[in-house]
Write a structure and sequence with these properties.
- With 431 residues, this protein is an alpha/beta fold.
- It is 34% helix and 24% strand.
- It is built from 13 helices and 18 strands.
- The relative contact order is 0.08.
Length: 431
């Protein structure tokens, strides 16, 4: 049988979709292009914003239009968020799965194909245990995600993720290490640790993130370890010590700030103020001043007037991020922020545009720091006579030549061709 799978949202969803793909392939299914006529369609959904909800609904209905007789599966956060009425408002779905039971997707499909009865696997609460998934290979052989954690208990005032992902749960360290070793042995040069609240790893099983990092960096053959995202509050002295004392952890960290205003951070129920955040960034830069620090910013959150926005802009410039991921505030039903006075849409758009312009300028400024410097690049793809890859600090490199995927080369940065940095491969490395 042919299966098409469509993934929305975060890197955790990407990992879980990859696990479903590997499970299906092992069971004899054929993975096909989603927009083709397939026997089964899986939509791994997202609900972080209203736009995510809209895309999830659109892809579910699109799948039914592609083949009216297919088995349609919807799983993930959009399903969890709407579980009280999902089967009524979206009758197109044959198998409804939230954020539990993605690991048994093959069994669910086989059950439906035999009985042809709608399956609804939703739970009032999540088990206290982590739903183990183990991936040995990805579709590419360059960078591999490893999910080490699920759930969140921060309860930011604008966010529904604790409701749809449950409480914090961690993969056992011995299983995480085995998975990473397997991927490295299978040719992956870079591992990306991911989770809903990655740096909170271990809180439920008597360990912590720093302890896991210390073991991972010892793995033979691992060239790069990247953390998909980490909160400033999770950059403990232990974690900073591991970062400082090895060259496996990359020189790039994604640290969400969400707002540059103490007033807005308090309304958001974030767990730090701007001074605390700046102090953590300074500690990272003491380790390596060229570190790339990217962030998430929500603009237009209730309370963000012109005065507060000027404070936001001032602090973001002072912190000097290398890139901003800008998200206009999206009302999520039954959250504390949804009950506050809302920022007018025109003002939200003005603020979004200004932040996007700031991000562009910050990114170009960061790129210029490396003109003329030699940097190691892990090449990932080639197209039309050029190869593309990333440096440790996540500069997106474009270089002339067809470099095999998963190959490291030293390049000299000679120009900026936004969003790329153009690099010239050192002559002694040209094959």
């Amino acid at each position: 049988m042919k299966v098409g799978i469509y993934t929305l949202g975060c890197k955790v969803n990407t990992y879980e979709s990859e696990f479903m793909i590997s499970s299906l392939v092992k069971a004899g299914f054929t993975i096909n292009d989603f927009d083709s006529v397939n026997d089964v369609y899986i939509i791994n959904t997202c609900t972080v914003t209203n736009n995510s909800d809209s895309k999830s609904r659109k892809m579910i209905r699109h799948a039914r239009k592609l083949n009216k007789d297919a088995c349609i599966i919807a799983c993930g956060c959009f399903v969890e968020y709407n579980k009280s009425n999902i089967s009524i408002v979206m009758p197109e779905i044959d198998i409804i799965v939230g954020n539990k039971d993605k690991s048994i997707i093959v069994d669910l499909i086989n059950d439906f194909m035999i009985n042809r009865k709608k399956i609804i696997n939703l739970y009032d609460d999540f088990d206290s245990s982590f739903e183990d998934m183990f991936i040995e290979n990805y579709k590419t052989r360059t960078r591999a995600f490893v999910k080490i954690q699920d759930g969140c208990e921060n309860f930011c005032s604008y966010c529904v993720i604790p409701r749809v992902r449950g409480k914090c749960r961690s993969k056992k360290p011995e299983i995480a290490l085995k998975e990473i070793k397997t991927l490295v042995n299978n040719g992956y040069k870079e591992i990306i640790l991911t989770g809903i609240h990655t740096g909170n790893y271990g809180v439920d099983i008597g360990t912590n993130f720093a302890s896991l990092l210390r073991e991972i960096v010892k793995i033979d053959g691992l060239k790069r370890l990247r953390i998909s995202s980490i909160e400033a509050t999770e950059l403990t002295d232990e974690v900073l010590d591991v970062i400082k004392n090895n060259d496996v952890i990359v020189n790039h960290f994604h640290i969400p700030i969400q707002s540059g205003s103490d007033k807005i951070l308090k309304i958001m129920n974030r767990k730090y103020d701007i001074d605390y955040f700046k102090n953590k960034i300074n500690k990272l830069r003491e380790i390596n001043n060229d570190v790339s620090i990217t962030t998430d910013v929500i603009t237009g959150h209730p309370g963000e007037n012109e005065e507060e926005f000027e404070i936001v802009m001032k602090n973001l410039k002072e912190i000097n991020f290398s890139k901003l991921h800008v998200f206009p505030y999206s009302i999520r039903e039954n959250t504390p922020s949804s009950r506050l006075a809302q920022v007018p849409e025109y003002l939200k758009k003005e603020h979004t545009d200004k932040l996007l312009e700031l991000s562009y300028n910050l990114e170009k400024k960061y790129m210029k720091k490396f003109l003329g410097k030699k940097m190691e690049v892990l090449f990932e793809t080639s197209k039309d006579g050029y190869s593309y890859g990333h440096t440790s600090n996540y500069l997106y490199i474009k270089a002339l030549g067809n470099i095999p995927s998963s190959t490291f080369k030293t390049v000299t940065i000679i120009n900026i061709e936004y969003p790329y940095v153009f690099g010239e491969i050192d002559e002694d490395q040209v094959e």
